Amino acid sequence: MFALQPEMKVFSGSANRDLAEKICKYMGIPLGKATISSFPDGETYVMIEENVRGRDVFLIQPTCPPTNEHLMELLIMVDAARRASADRITAVIPFFGYARQDRKDKPRVPITAKLIANLLHAAGVNRVLTMDLHAQQVQGFFDIPVDHLYSLPVLIKYLRKKLKGKTVVVSPDIGGLKMASAYAGALGANLAIVAKERKSATHTEALYLIGEVKDCDVLLVDDLTETAGTLTSAAEILKKNGAKKIYAGVSHAVLVDVAIGRLQKSKIEELITTNSTPVRSVEGFKVTVLSVAELLGEGMKRIHNDESVSSLFKIENDK
């Protein structure tokens, strides 16, 4: 073991290099040099171009689409760093894919979130830093430390300026109630829930509203949107119940093609999200992207210095 703290080295995969550069700028260190390319048959090739022997290595790679490609890239980067004798390897995964597959809800289906945890551990990851997991119990799938950050302190600063009138925070499904409650507490707002039924992987239907939203501005909060089906169907039922302006606050906006049309036709005024993954623009619809580079960079610094990260969860009370 080192008597002194080993040097910190940060590398990025191809999933979100812009975020990695912003994190390094905040920390005041250069982004490490690495070559990431593909062979003609699609195999991923990685070469770390700096000495990492005995270093504290951080690998930044959200598993956004193409999910499997970016996941495999991360595993290969980890293996390259481990075989180059890195002292410790921390996988920084701002958006952790497969987190929704955290249980057997049907016969003969996998628990893929546990499989991904096993793969990362087997590849050589010593620690994971992630943000707004879809299911917090995924932390328990790892046999290594997991630091789980929340985007709430970043989003709440913007939302306090945006939401000045009477506001209700709405969870678009039962599973997001805890997150919605945290936002309601931070904003001093009331809380409501939309009950939904999932018809298929790309289609959900809002069934009924629990709570009162008439003549109120509404903030829909969720950890993830891909098809925007949950958000847009919830917005429809909220409008029918007398809501005024409807905003959506989402930690990870992984917008696929079907989401673009849905958002353009929706009752939602604005989607507020983070740069945990690259966010697609939506023509004719307002998307506000807030940076979590400072949040993740501070978390990485504290991990490197063996300091507590719990103070990053605190929310400033001033409005």
How does this structure look, described?
With 319 residues, the chain is of the alpha/beta class. The chain has 2 domains: 8-149 and 294-313, 3-Layer(aba) Sandwich (Rossmann fold), CATH 3.40.50; 152-291, Rossmann fold (3-Layer(aba) Sandwich). It is 30% helix and 26% strand. It contains 8 helices and 14 strands. It has a 7-stranded mixed β-sheet with strand order 10-9-8-11-12-13-14, with helices on both faces. It has a 5-stranded parallel β-sheet with strand order 1-4-5-6-7, with helices on both faces. Helix 1 (17-27) crosses helix 8 (293-304) and helix 4 (152-162) crosses helix 5. The longest helix has 17 residues, at 67-83.
Give the SSE order as H and E letters. Answer: EHEEEHEHEEHEHEEEHEHEEH
CATH C-level name of the largest domain: Alpha Beta
Percentage beta strand: 25-35%
**pLDDT < 50 runs, ≥5 residues:** none
Mean pLDDT, rounded to whole units? 93
Principal-axis shape equals globular
Number of strands: 14
Q: Largest beta sheet, briefly?
A: 7 strands, mixed
Compute the CA-based radius of gyration: 20 Å
- Tell me the CATH architecture of the largest domain: 3-Layer(aba) Sandwich
